[in-house]
């Protein structure tokens, strides 16, 4: 990757991290479920899938790797899930994992449909 690529990833990462913080802070928690992280993961997965299936690589560094790489957050998802397990909130633990996995896989499936429509 050339210097421009690193710069685009860095700028995108800055933007994506701020967006994640904003979205996760806006979405209210539903019981024990960290719905802010869930929302970010679904949005990011769906957008990444759309961009990937739109077959345009012009946004690879800035959008795909930079913004969406820092916007979505598997590490936060796993930490929050483990915290629920430690708190013995077993139903919320399983629900959180199920929602993130099922909804994000659905988002990947939605990406090519959106790319074909737009």
Automatic annotation (TrEMBL):
Gene Ontology CC entries for this record: plasma membrane
Regulation: Na(+) is not transported, but it plays an essential structural role and its presence is essential for fluoride channel function.
Broad class of the protein's primary localization: membrane
UniProt subcellular location: Cell membrane
Pfam family, one: CRCB
Membrane-spanning residues: 6-23, 59-85, 97-115
One Gene Ontology term of the molecular function aspect: metal ion binding
Job description of the protein: Fluoride-specific ion channel. Important for reducing fluoride concentration in the cell, thus reducing its toxicity.
Family, as annotated: Belongs to the fluoride channel Fluc/FEX (TC 1.A.43) family.
Protein name (database record): Fluoride-specific ion channel FluC
Organism of derivation: Methanohalophilus mahii (strain ATCC 35705 / DSM 5219 / SLP)
Gene assigned in the entry: fluC
